[in-house]
TrEMBL record:
Span of domain Alpha-D-phosphohexomutase alpha/beta/alpha: 26-158, 176-272, 278-390
Lineage: Bacteria, Pseudomonadati, Pseudomonadota, Alphaproteobacteria, Hyphomicrobiales
GO biological process, one term: carbohydrate metabolic process
Cofactor(s) the record lists: Mg(2+)
Pfam families, A to Z: PGM_PMM_I (PF02878), PGM_PMM_II (PF02879), PGM_PMM_III (PF02880), PGM_PMM_IV (PF00408)
One GO molecular-function entry: metal ion binding
Protein name (database record): Phosphomannomutase/phosphoglucomutase
Source organism per UniProt: Bradyrhizobium arachidis
């Protein structure tokens, strides 16, 4: 028998070395994240492996799984503890070694293995660890699988059996790189800054971009798990400013920044200005729908309204549907609908054939951006960005709302707007043109201005985003309208930031 995990154990004690510790909050909506040694120990990781093996069997999936680990000082030891648990549960483990997360997803297809367990803390600070998991390629776990995994692990419902085995795949990254680069070279000579924040992508990104024909300016590509410059997260201003400075100094065509596990790609144009991921998505949708007739796209509800209103996309017959925020939800919806691509505002992009296999890969995104520039000779990244219709967008704003009540508040807010629409009532003198209620409520009025309210997936907060294609004042008007509704609910507290 394996002991039932404890939620707390003190380090440097007999118990810490003799019992599994797994803090329940580490099981998130799509993956698992813990502070190593504070919230989970190696025996806890072993329990996670046993639980994952039991869940795979329960799902009726062949117990065969790909594992890899990111570049952290402790990730390899965590992976081997996970592997020992998986093998105890009867799994055949295919270890690809040090990898970016999409390399593990690729290996599921390349090695014909149904399941994946990638040890990574993604873009989290040092000290964090975690596992991204799936049992139905190219999808990763959603809330149902994560809830069941949590139950199995915390209740020690393990069904360990003989038959587990281990295989290490030597020099596996070469197969992933060959898959990405076995294509015609770019016809346009692009000078590209490849920024990796000393994270895992530094081992692969420069090589891939050079192989497709780019002149690469490497920026913090040396592997160093202390992350001496900044955390590898292309949404953090410190990394973006470093990319900006390198782009301007080297007169580069574009700056591409990769997060800690390489499944996201941030973009800085040739003038040093960051392009938010949803706007990059619109640019890519324009490029792709010019080639593929009646292209379908999926975007998350936080993304710009240009996906629907952009005249170029309309002319090219592109159709876009909005869906729930969250990379696991988005990946699943893009797969189910057979859309050409899915774009999430956080920078997770999902490309189906002929661009990709449906999973999020920062290098596939980077290659798509380079191809877009290659098909636009004489135009810079800034030119392509400036060709988009102007919109005024807010940052993500989050008023406090307790976890216990936030979903109830959202239900009431959704009903409020549904009632207004049913009555034909106007908001600020304009009729409601559209309501999207797949994830909270996104209200769009006649002039294309919109406001979104949803519950945060992982914090005691609501999420508010507004945008207007008309003016900055209309953006403020939409915020005031949304906020006035929220203020009728005393459970909603102060914002972290507002416009």
């Amino acid at each position: 028998m394996f002991p039932k995990p404890k939620s707390v154990l003190l380090p440097n004690t007999y118990g810490f070395e003799s019992e599994p510790m797994v803090k329940p909050t580490g099981f998130r909506e799509y993956d698992a994240r813990w502070l190593f040694q504070k919230e989970i120990n190696l025996m806890g990781i072993q329990a996670l492996g046993m639980g994952l093996g039991a869940l795979i069997a329960e799902l009726g999936v062949k117990q065969e799984i790909v594992t890899g680990h990111d570049f952290r000082g402790y990730s390899a030891s965590i992976k081997y503890a996970l592997i020992s648990g998986l093998m105890a549960a009867g799994c055949k483990v295919h270890d690809i070694g040090l990898a970016v997360t999409p390399m593990a997803y690729f290996a599921q297809f390349d090695l014909d293995v149904p399941c994946v367990a990638m040890v990574t803390a993604s873009h989290n600070d040092n000290g964090w660890t975690g596992v991204k998991m799936g049992a139905n390629r190219p999808l990763t776990f959603g809330p149902d699988e994560m809830t069941r995994l949590k139950e199995i692990v915390l209740n020690a419902e393990f069904k360990n059996t003989a038959g587990g085995s281990y295989q290490f795949h030597e020099n596996y990254p070469a197969r992933y790189i060959a898959d990405l680069t076995g294509r015609p070279k770019l016809t346009r000579k692009l000078k590209v800054v490849a920024a990796c924040g000393n994270g895992t992508a530094g081992a692969f990104a420069p090589q891939v971009l050079e192989a497709i024909g780019c002149e690469v300016i490497p920026l913090d590509t040396e592997l160093d798990h202390t992350f001496p410059k900044y955390n590898p997260n292309p949404e953090d201003m410190e990394m973006l400013h470093a990319i900006r400075d390198a782009v301007l100094h080297h007169k580069a065509d574009v700056g591409l920044g990769f997060d800690g596990d390489g499944d996201r790609c941030g973009v800085v144009d040739n003038t040093g200005e960051e392009i938010f991921a949803d706007k990059v998505g619109v640019m890519l949708a324009r490029d792709m729908s010019a080639i593929h007739k009646d292209a379908q796209f999926i975007v998350d509800v936080k993304s710009t309204g240009l996906f629907v209103t952009d005249p170029v996309l309309q002319k090219q017959g592109a159709k876009t549907a909005y869906w729930k925020t969250g990379h696991s939800y988005m990946k699943r919806r893009t797969n189910e609908t057979g859309a050409l691509a899915g774009f999430e505002k956080s920078g997770h992009f999902f490309f189906n054939k002929p661009y990709g296999r449906g999973y999020d890969d920062g290098l596939v995104s980077a290659i798509a951006i380079c191809d877009m520039l290659d098909r636009a000779p004489g135009k810079s990244m800034a030119d392509l960005k400036d060709a988009l219709p102007k919109t005024w967008s807010s940052p993500t704003m989050s008023p406090h709302c307790a976890d216990e009540v936030k979903y109830g508040v959202i239900d009431k807010v959704v009903k409020h707007f549904e009632d207004l629409q049913a009555k034909g009532a106007k908001i600020g003198g304009q009729s409601i043109r559209d309501l999207v209620t797949v994830n909270g409520v996104r209200v769009t009025v006649e002039d294309g201005s919109w406001g979104l309210v949803r519950a945060s997936s992982n914090k005691p907060e609501l999420v508010v985003v507004v945008e207007s294609p008309v003016s900055e004042q209309r953006m403020h008007d939409m915020f005031e309208m949304v906020n006035s509704v929220l203020r009728t609910h005393p459970e909603v507290g102060a914002y972290n930031q507002t416009i």
